[in-house]
Amino acid sequence: MQTHPNVDKELFKSKTQIGLKNPTKPFPLNNDIGVLKWRFTSTDETCLPLSINCWPSDNGAGGCDVNIEYELEQEDKELSQVTIVIPLPHNCSPNITECDGDYNYDPRKSCLTWSLALIDASNKSGALEFVAPQASQSDFFPLQVTFSCNQSYANIKCTEVKHVEDDSPVKFSSETVLFTQKYEIV
């Protein structure tokens, strides 16, 4: 976790409170200002909010039958604007046999984009199945995944804001955005 340079780091560490180093100086009002940032990176797949499995198999006709499945691993999260981009061999038009959500084939970029408006506890798993003529199993990697969520990964939230002088409550707003920076299935 990283606090803004003007935030009292010791106060944050000892009491998990955010206050300015100089308490006589006010926070800027009516301005969006980031005071706490954090970043999480891991190679542990159990930490992912969404798991994706891609199963290409040789169909005996020079192509592949491909099955891709997703599953929401953290059911308290709602993932929106989910896209899974699957690379395809050049001039390989896929034949879609099953799709939860929507798909779009882009022949110029040689990719298939699987789109899901929302993945949540009521829609926690789904599949995309297609046949790719003239393809080998390694042609479908890496998959590129993007999504956003209005909850933080660690459920960090601001519960109240108080005046420094008299501890009285102050009206505040906050915005939480979780998004993928780089999420690949290789």
From TrEMBL:
Matching Gene3D superfamilies: Mu homology domain, subdomain B (2.60.40.1170)
Any Pfam family the entry gives: Adap_comp_sub
GO biological process, one term: Golgi localization
Subcellular location: Cytoplasm; Cytoplasmic vesicle, COPI-coated vesicle membrane; Golgi apparatus membrane
Matches recorded under PROSITE patterns: MHD
Domain MHD: 1-186
Swiss-Prot/TrEMBL keywords: Cytoplasm, Cytoplasmic vesicle, ER-Golgi transport, Golgi apparatus, Membrane, Protein transport, Transport
Membrane topology: Peripheral membrane protein
Principal cellular location given in the protein's record: cytoplasm
Assembly description: Oligomeric complex that consists of at least the alpha, beta, beta', gamma, delta, epsilon and zeta subunits.
Similarity comment: family membership: Belongs to the adaptor complexes medium subunit family. Delta-COP subfamily.
Role noted for this protein: The coatomer is a cytosolic protein complex that binds to dilysine motifs and reversibly associates with Golgi non-clathrin-coated vesicles, which further mediate biosynthetic protein transport from the ER, via the Golgi up to the trans Golgi network. Coatomer complex is required for budding from Golgi membranes, and is essential for the retrograde Golgi-to-ER transport of dilysine-tagged proteins.
Protein name in the entry: Coatomer subunit delta
Phylogenetic placement of the source organism: Eukaryota, Metazoa, Ecdysozoa, Arthropoda, Hexapoda
